[in-house]
Amino acid sequence: MKKMFVLAVFLLNVFAANAQVRFGLKAGYDLTGVKIKTDDYYTYFLRSLNYSKVSGFHAGVIADVAWGEHFSFQPGLLYTLRGYDAAGVVPGPADGPTDASIKTRYHYLELPANFLYKYSLGPGKLFAGAGPFLSYGISGRVKAEYEAYDSPERTVVFLDKQGDYNTAITNRQYLRPFNAGVSFTLGYEFNTGILISGNYNLGMTDVEPESNLSQKSRSWGISIGYLFNNEK
Asked: Exposure of 167 by Cβ count < 10 A (0-12 exposed, 13-18 middle, 19+ buried)?
């Protein structure tokens, strides 16, 4: 988390030179999901589950660093809730396959860094842009229910390497803490400072690299925000 904060300050200082800088707040609703991939026999059944998106949210602070009339750099630091649900038939104990329902929720600190193009239209500006994002996992839960047997709720533990895993503790799920990808945004900024936007985040990091299962995040969202020190 310290590295993310230092990176945010560094980027802001670099792009703030000879530019107009405004700070603001941002929050919104997300529809989050996951892309699962596996070629391993023992986890192949996970591909046959029905995966569904779940509700999440994001909230935090942003900065808008303007270069001239049309271009700006907009980094932020957001608290986000991500996850997904899954349901279907999985291998069971001696009695054979069993129905399963899996619910996951992950909490992240996220650093987006979007480059925007703005076009004056009506009482404000239409904008579109894209850029990288970096997330750091801070907590999470996995709840799996099986028809044939009981399973405890698992706590998500974010660790950098497999050597730190304690496999003797069965009520934990280990994931990589850093998630990186590309974000896209389209929205409108009123001259009063109010922002409305739609967003898409494409996760490109496998957050479960130490297993035979690949897990990459996906999310759609809508945001509302406010930038201070605006045109009168």
From this structure: exposed
For residue 221, what are its two tokens? 């969202």
5 φ/ψ angles, rounded to the nearest 5 degrees: -65, -45
Total number of residues shown for the chain: 232
Count of alpha carbons within 13 Å of 213, Cβ hemisphere only?
16
Total-model pTM: 0.81
Distance, CA of 57 to CA of 46 (rounded, Å)? 26
113-131 pLDDT tens trace: 999 999 999 999 999 999 9
Cβ atoms of residues 61 and 227 within 8 Å: no
Rounded CA separation 24/203 (Å): 25
* Identity of residue 186: L
CA atoms within 13 A on the CB side of 182: 5
**CATH number attached to the domain at 2-227:** 2.40.160.20
**What residue has token string 């929720």?**
105
CB 133 within 8 A of CB 181: yes
2 forms beta bridges with: none
Pairing of strands 124-146, 178-190: antiparallel
CA 159 from chain center: how many Å?
17
Q: Please, which pLDDT band fits residue 90 given cuts at 50, 70 and 90?
A: confident
